[in-house]
Description:
By secondary structure, chain A is an all-alpha fold. Chain A is built from nine helices and no strands. In chain A, helix 1 (2-14) crosses helix 6 and helix 4 (65-73) packs parallel to helix 7. Chain A is elongated. The two termini of chain A are 23 Å apart. By secondary structure, chain B is mainly α. The longest helix of chain B has 43 residues, at 9-51. Chain C has one domain (25-49, 56-252). In chain C, 80% of the residues lie in helices and 0% in strands. The interface between A and C is medium-sized, with 28 and 25 residues.
Amino acid sequence: xxxxxxxxxxxxxxxxxxxxxxxxxxxxxxxxxxxxxxxxxxxxxxxxxxxxxxxxxxxxxxxxxxxxxxxxxxxxxxxxxxxxxxxxxxxxxxxxxxxxxxxxxxxxxxxxxxxxxxxxxxxxxxxxxxxxxxxxxxxxxxxxxxxxxxxxxxxxxxxxxxxxxxxxxxxxxxxxxxxxxxxxxxxxxxxxxxxxxxxxxxxxxxxxxxxxxxxxxx
Amino acid sequence: xxxxxxxxxxxxxxxxxxxxxxxxxxxxxxxxxxxxxxxxxxxxxxxxxxxx
Amino acid sequence: xxxxxxxxxxxxxxxxxxxxxxxxxxxxxxxxxxxxxxxxxxxxxxxxxxxxxxxxxxxxxxxxxxxxxxxxxxxxxxxxxxxxxxxxxxxxxxxxxxxxxxxxxxxxxxxxxxxxxxxxxxxxxxxxxxxxxxxxxxxxxxxxxxxxxxxxxxxxxxxxxxxxxxxxxxxxxxxxxxxxxxxxxxxxxxxxxxxxxxxxxxxxxxxxxxxxxxxxxxxxxxxxxxxxxxxxxxxxxxxxxxxxxxxxxxxxxxxxx
Lengths: 218, 52, 257
């Protein structure tokens, strides 16, 4: 399992720079937002938590179609399916690798982008916390979407159509934590809900992903 | 015959028109595709039975 | 009748031939009763109910809005059940019924959204508000679109049935989650409407008698929508079964040639 994780991480670092791409995309989104809504700093400050969450979510989405497709094409997935490791564990490791290569950098970089959008002082801490708690759910749900569409030639667009509605609860609670934090309000309830969703998806969705992957490998 | 709908005439009439239009379209499309598929199946079955 | 015998009577329709024969027999009845209920209910509601004192004539939209919204949700529930049946018992008719129902759900959701927007304009002063109920329906609409897109994208029918069934299960859980998330996110303008209180919801609940004036035609419309849904599902499932048979025949032909 650990060997698989390191293999995935290494491949992500090396092959075609999939590693930094999400971050650059995140940077571009945050740069474009002021052009779209105007440079007033109070306006930017009020929408910053939502924009940062949306940017992180889209950056996460961007790298999903590479999550399983490469292993599907070169037959690695068939090998993994016949390996002693259960497929549930394989998809969990895949999701973890995806989180480490896209989710984690986004969490760490978010405060920097927060400065660009004039995020209010107390907001930084809550933004990082909400992203750290919420992004694992994005990776796990994304793995499910990638497993659903892995056999398709042009699955990219379909993947977004399938995954984005599933992101709604995470986005709502995550952005709510960041927004309330930025306004200095109490954040306990949405943070607990966000954590609950993340834990539930981590616990349950790998079974669905593995089931779907088995169907696709049939 | 036509009831007086007051100032909301457009709202009521357009919602009835749009809804009924969508329902009729759905039924019409279902029937159209159903007929087509049924005809095609009969054609295929006949060809199969002729060729053995 | 024992439980086992009862179960047998349901499962015999898993045989496509049996399903087609029976649905052919009962379909005229469903089409006819659906048409009668809808025509009577809508005409009654449109021409012979008084205006609401607060909402004016817009209250007449309720005869389309509430039934279509109900069917939008019930259609998803039906797809959930048939998907489960497919996953557990592998009856093709069940999976095909789920596929046949999805476009009906889309249309129902669309009707609910459009009539809601048209109704909202004079009542709330805006076509669209990010009210929890509206937002939930929009999300439901997206789920339907994704579900149909997945069916269309996959060539092998059994694979498609499996994948869409799992998507339906996962989607249901997330749809419920979204409903609560959206509730939390914005407490809306919508009245807490439930079918049994539909008469009271219109704002004229001064006496039972007045709300009944709205309730009877509404009830008739709801029954009409349910019957129409059943007729459409039966008919479209028949279409899907035949389309699948064509596929099988062609495959056999090619294998033989």
